[in-house]
Design a protein that fits this description.
- The structure is a single chain.
- The protein is of the alpha+beta class.
- It has six helices and ten strands; from the N terminus they run H-E-E-E-E-H-H-E-H-E-H-E-E-E-H-E.
- It starts with a helix and ends in a 6-residue tail after the last strand.
Length: about 210
Amino acid sequence: MKTSRYIRLVSLLAMIGLLSFKPVNTAYQVGDNVADFSLKSTDGRMVSLSSYKNAKGFIVVFTCNHCPFAKKYQERMNALNKKYTEKGFPLLAISSNDAIAVPSDSYENMQARAKEEHYNFPYLFDETQSVAKTFGAAKTPQAFVLAKENGKLVLKYSGAIDDNGAEPAKVTRHYAEDAVNALLTGKKIDVTETRSIGCPIKWKNS
């Protein structure tokens, strides 16, 4: 009798433990410090966040070659980099797709795309996909705005670049741009997180 009650008690405690368990999210959340990384650019250079000594922050965009959504943002990304590099917030684009699953996203094809579209920003290859996983990137395109505070980079915004991927002329909310403008003027960022609309990042088979 006592043994039966003990077993039921143990089972109940186990169920409570399972219900209350929450998996640990290791990806960056808004407000987290961002670690440096070093990735190969399409021009052959290794690019890291720390190599930008005078940067006030960054606009980091996970993108790729093949995604129709990402293609619609190529000119907008050039415009963002042109506008904000001189203000201390350069744009870095990162492709993390598995090039075996999607050959058009290979490093060689990244080089060709950067040349064809006259990218004015570094286009970096996250071959191991470790940077995308650390950031918690899931879609292309997906933007992350970082700001330097007390010598560290802090995540300030994550999500969509703006609110209309299909038609640039109909954009009404420029989320990434608004976040950078707020940081430059010392104001509070109104929207710190949005949902990215785009193609899923193609992960390697483990």
